[in-house]
Amino acid sequence: MFVFTAPSGAGKTTIVRHLLSHFEFLDFSISATTRAKRDHEVNAKDYYFLTPQEFRTKVKNNEFVEWEEVYDDQFYGTLKSEIDRIWAKNKHIVFDIDVRGATNLKGMYGEDCLAVFIKPPSLEILIERLKSRNTESQGSLKKRIARVKREMGYENDFDQILINDLLQVALKEAEFLIEDFLDLKYE
Ligand code: 5GP
User: Residue 97 CA: which ligand 1 atom is closest?
Assistant: First the structure.
């Protein structure tokens, strides 16, 4: 499995989407979340959008392999059923999750998991990208920037660091990371 994590706005989603369209043998782990759906998002494609009550019930029933309160009152988690769904298709799983969730998955799956930290060229550039994305309210943007500052400190906990400066270069590097990891595993 491949776990991609990054501070919000580092370009993680773009890189993950590219890899999914480039390699047929990859499939995306659709997380569950209680946050509001953005206009362009589709339920059961980008996320399984759940009410807080539905989310809590799944936590109680032990249906998550990992879950986090990523922002105050906004829960995100990986369902065990999602891992089963993708492995049943004989595909490798790609995760797009927060730093703590990524560390947890790496701890659980060890050598079967490549954990990649995507890093923006600088904090200033990251904040600019977040602002220009225009998907967040003022309050939410503030929360995200505070979190970014914390998350930037975790890069050394991962197997690989991928710097997203020039996107085309980062996309190629991401492809190499996938190919290298699979070659090494099946040599
Ligand atoms: P966003 O609201 O921008 O889609 O995601 C916010 C953060 O939650 C991102 O860092 C994203 O990677 C993370 N996230 C998404 N799904 C999961 C999940 O299943 N588990 C955890 N721990 N974090 C997640």
Answer: 12
